[in-house]
Amino acid sequence: KLGNETVKAELGRATWKYFHTVMARFPETPTDDQKEALRSYIYLFARLYPCGECAEHFQQHLKKYPPQVSSRNAASGWACFIHNEVNAMLDKPEFDCANLGDFYDCGCKEDEGGKGE
Ligand code: FAD
């Protein structure tokens, strides 16, 4: 049981890192197509997340707080907020979203165009 919890936590950490990095690289002024791509991605991500109970919870959170995809700032702020909802559910400390800044760096600064271009 402890083993399972450790594996679930590792998957969670890796996934959050990836999830927030996707948001940090989303275009600052996305096209309608890019907004739709992010919205679909988030709903599919929630459906397909490998931990079934987590996927279930996360889909409930999405119903309450639908994805914000109008800009990079909106998307990263929303992702930080919803991660904090999961933190609260698990009795973890709240992360200060004002500290997001360059916290999620993809190591790809040279291609400044951003994702989806
Ligand atoms: P994590 O929550 O994994 O966070 C990793 C790091 O991200 C933190 O150390 C911090 O530096 C940073 N961070 C923390 N909060 C934020 C934030 N709000 N915004 C940006 N960065 C932040 N586990 C369960 O037991 N039950 C569940 O139902 C469940 N649902 C999950 C749903 C999803 C979609 C995901 C991705 C994970 C879920 N998990 C669930 C796993 C859980 O959220 C944690 O990943 C896991 O418990 C490890 O926690 P951690 O304390 O290492 O930090």
Q: Gist?
A:
The protein is mainly α.
Question: Can you characterise this structure?
Answer:
This protein is mainly α. The chain has a single domain (14-99), classed as Four Helix Bundle (Hemerythrin (Met), subunit A) (Up-down Bundle). It has 4 helices and no strands. It has helices spanning 2-24, 32-48, 52-64, 72-89. It is globular. The protein starts with a helix and ends in a 28-residue tail after the last helix. 13% of the residues are buried. The mean pLDDT is 92. The chain binds flavin-adenine dinucleotide. Residues 8-9, 12-13, 15-16, 20, 49, 53-54, 57-58, 80, 83-84, 86-87, 90, 92, 95 line the site of flavin-adenine dinucleotide.
Helix and strand topology:
Layout: H1 2-24, H2 32-48, H3 52-64, H4 72-89
The site of flavin-adenine dinucleotide has 20 residues, from helix 1, helix 3 and helix 4.
Backbone shape:
globular
How many H/I helical runs? Answer: 4
Task: Give the terminus-to-terminus CA distance.
Answer: 44 Å
CA-based gyration radius: 15 Å
CATH class: Mainly Alpha
Just name the CATH architecture: Up-down Bundle
Q: What is the count of distinct domains?
A: 1
CATH-defined topology: Four Helix Bundle (Hemerythrin (Met), subunit A)
* CATH-defined superfamily: ERV/ALR sulfhydryl oxidase domain
Global mean pLDDT: 92
Which compounds are bound in this model? flavin-adenine dinucleotide
